[in-house]
Amino acid sequence: MGHEQGPAAGGRKGAAVDQARFDGATDLGQACRFCLRRGAALFRDLTDEELTRFGQMQIADLGFLPGEVLYRQGDPGQAVYMIRDGMVKLEQFLPDGSQRIVRLARGGAAIALEVLLDGDCEHQAVALQPTRVCRLPREVLLRIEGETPRLHRQLMAFWHASVSEADTWLTLLSTGSARTRVARLLLLLSEEGESFEMLSREDIGAMLGITTETASRTVAEFRRAGTLRPVGVRRFAVDRGALAGISGT
Amino acid sequence: MGHEQGPAAGGRKGAAVDQARFDGATDLGQACRFCLRRGAALFRDLTDEELTRFGQMQIADLGFLPGEVLYRQGDPGQAVYMIRDGMVKLEQFLPDGSQRIVRLARGGAAIALEVLLDGDCEHQAVALQPTRVCRLPREVLLRIEGETPRLHRQLMAFWHASVSEADTWLTLLSTGSARTRVARLLLLLSEEGESFEMLSREDIGAMLGITTETASRTVAEFRRAGTLRPVGVRRFAVDRGALAGISGT
DNA sequence: CGTGGCCTTGAAGTAAATCAACACCAGTGG
DNA sequence: CCACTGGTGTTGATTTACTTCAAGGCCACG
To answer: Which residues of chain B (39-68) touch nucleic strand C at CB < 7 A?
Structure first.
């Protein structure tokens, strides 16, 4: 399952490449047996027999590099994406041109669920890290759902995850001082694994509703305090205790 | 369908009465035929035959007065609530005791959907106006869902509405200056009907992530400018054009 | 070696929080 | 009836945190 990586999508922002770098069409059975191992599969409740039966359907297995766009706000809804690995930001644009990142999707998450309701894509999805996804065409999901009701519970679980994530952003990342918000964001980013890949100051700002300068200053402050220390290129480890204190928990 | 109204839930906040003022157990068929008229029914896709069949199940038809609590954060999930009329705020508490209102639910909305996944209630739901709801026990919904897959699409629509609402709050009500946020909130509140019932300054603050003082000052400013004018007790009408300008649309 | 993209940092200006006082009203009890 | 009370809203003065504007540093890349 190796994948070659080209240079990051270059050029001015907004003109990112919407193209897979490493991709292979695969059948549902394969894709899901992989996901099953990860314990967050959409089809975990399907029997082997069903997996085989639906295995004929073509599921695209795509890769995106940082900066590449999975889909844009307003795109006609064609497919749901399951994140297998990596990280994607979902952003929404306001009429005045400003934007806000409303969610991060990491491994195990489903995005663009709204297309199941015949809607257009409500966000723009952009990879923040090298990301692998399963692209599940709407028709495939709807057909499977029609045949095996067991899928519903899983779908609801993904909807629920979206709502919970959104609520978390409202309560944790949009409340309190800039310092507090950055601390809470770092806690979230670092909650799985020893270290994590730092986001751009601009993205941090767009997530927390603060300016990039304030984001920069706050991150710099945490670095000086030793609360945040570099452990590689763009990778950092945090002092969870200190951050928890700052975040008011 | 008359309902008596007692005095508002008195006493200190947080000790609100969790009790119905006007309630009548009814059967599913009745409840839904009412909701069907409103065009936002959970069961709209069920046939008459099915409605009658499930009609045996007892659905509670409850009423709440402003300040009364429908359920608390952490309560064991027992039922989903369909708002028939009125307005409910969903609030989430942070460990440090502060709170944030993450959503408003008005007529046609479903709240506490998370109990369908065997979870506890994730918010505290408090009526802001005299509110009528249908209380649908989890078992009832799950059983109906198991028998008629048509319910799924409706449920997904409600999940979707929750996510969309949350995203709106992030982009519209948690971004920009206090003035801008208040303007956008007033636009949302006034989007159906000529006038609307004003919220307390404290609630406005908890929705927008600003202090009650700032909320008060901004509302007062809009009143002085004539952008917001009183048309009754706690009821106001707005100059939508002016607000749209301020909100940057 | 230059160029452009991010990040950092400083100085100045400003919006909002904070602290504090008071007005207003409905309800309560003298 | 009036005086009291508590809750809510308003307003002012002050302080603080964040934005804004501006400059320069660092690094990957051509």
So the answer is: none
